[in-house]
Specification:
about 300 residues, alpha/beta, Rossmann fold, Alpha-Beta Plaits, 6-stranded mixed β-sheet, 4-stranded antiparallel β-sheet, 10 helices, 13 strands, elongated, binds adenosine-5'-triphosphate
Length: about 300
């Protein structure tokens, strides 16, 4: 099966609430695609539609080129974590997984394998009712991985995880994608996706506001801003401004130049005989890039051009 998710023109209303308003994007294999956006943007509804749990009013969602409902043994095709709270409290984590595994013709050996993979260990033999949110997330991820599916879809998997858990899941997601899977992960917090997502689908009000590579997004937000530490501030400013840079004083011995990239700044300073002890290219964080992107989206909408 082709490892992709494709949603095209999804529309969905709940009474007077428009949950999806033309949601369209593709999740390719081999990278983690972050699905982000503010509360109510339509992320969970989109995932529910992909899994056939909600029917769209219009549009379609395909997994590996076909609707989810037409998949045979779906756990071996798509692994999903939607609501980590949905557990039988009296059942142990392992029994929960065994029950799921048997329904799909999978054995106990695979259950123990995924328990090891998500680091649940002995906890898996305790009743799920006593699990912390972080343990429930791990169990949910184990369930998603049971059938070794080529497509994974996780709704807010970072919720409730401690810092170690967050580092762990980032590594897991990256390695699952590196094996050629399509991995869609929703999150509110950009910082959680930093270093993990290769592609970012930003949702707002039921549609896609931006869909781009993370490297490209960060580069666009970094604006070639370079900080220079120098004992000859005025000369540095003259030299850089003379080459077309926009220069500003940012401290007793630092100036910031926008325009030329760091390598060019070094060339200019060296060429002009200006002493410096440090030249640092500013790299925007994913959070900063996201804020800038969504701010533009809001401004774009405010003048009516985006509607
Ligand atoms: N079953 C439902 N009944 C009524 N309204 C719903 C239902 N499910 C979702 N909605 C509404 O649809 C909109 C989109 O919700 P959705 O949960 O998909 O957004 P989200 O991006 O996942 O948000 P969050 O980040 O808060 O989880 C919201 O206004 C929500 O209140």
């Amino acid at each position: 099966m082709e490892a992709t998710i494709e949603v095209t023109g999804l529309r969905k209303r709940f009474g007077r609430t428009v949950a999806l308003d033309g949601m369209t994007f593709r999740v390719p294999p081999g990278r983690v695609t972050g699905f982000v956006g503010p509360n109510g943007a339509g992320k969970s509804t989109t995932m529910r539609v992909i899994l056939g749990l909600d029917a769209p009013d219009e549009g379609r969602a395909l997994v590996g080129g076909v609707p989810y409902r037409s998949l045979e043994e779906p756990l071996t095709r798509v692994g999903a974590l939607l609501d980590a709270g949905a557990l039988q409290p009296s059942r142990t984590g392992r029994d929960h997984l065994l029950w799921l595994a048997h329904s799909q013709g999978l054995g106990a050996a695979r259950v123990d394998e995924v328990i090891g993979l998500v680091g649940l260990g002995g906890t898996a033999r305790r009743r799920a009712g006593g699990y912390s949110l972080g343990m429930r997330q791990r169990l949910g991820i184990a369930a998603a991985l049971l059938g070794d599916p080529p497509v994974l879809m996780l709704d807010e998997p970072f919720n409730g995880l401690d810092p170690d858990g967050i580092v762990w899941i980032r590594g897991l997601l990256r390695s699952l994608a590196a094996e050629g899977r399509a991995v869609l992960v929703s999150s509110h917090l950009m910082s959680e996706l930093e270093g993990t997502a290769g592609q970012l689908v930003v949702a707002g009000r039921g549609r896609v506001v931006a869909d781009m590579g993370v490297a490209e997004l960060i580069e666009a937000a970094s604006h070639d801003r370079v900080t220079i530490r120098t004992t000859a501030r005025s000369r540095a400013m003259e030299t850089l401004a003379g080459a077309g840079a926009t220069v500003a004083v940012t401290g007793g011995d630092t100036v910031t130049a926008s325009g030329p990239p760091a390598e060019r700044v070094v060339e200019l300073l060296t060429g002009g005989g200006v002493p410096f002890s440090e030249v640092t290219a500013h790299r925007a964080t994913l959070e900063e890039a996201y804020m800038e992107l969504t701010r533009d989206a809001v401004e774009f909408r405010a003048d009516g051009a985006g509607r």
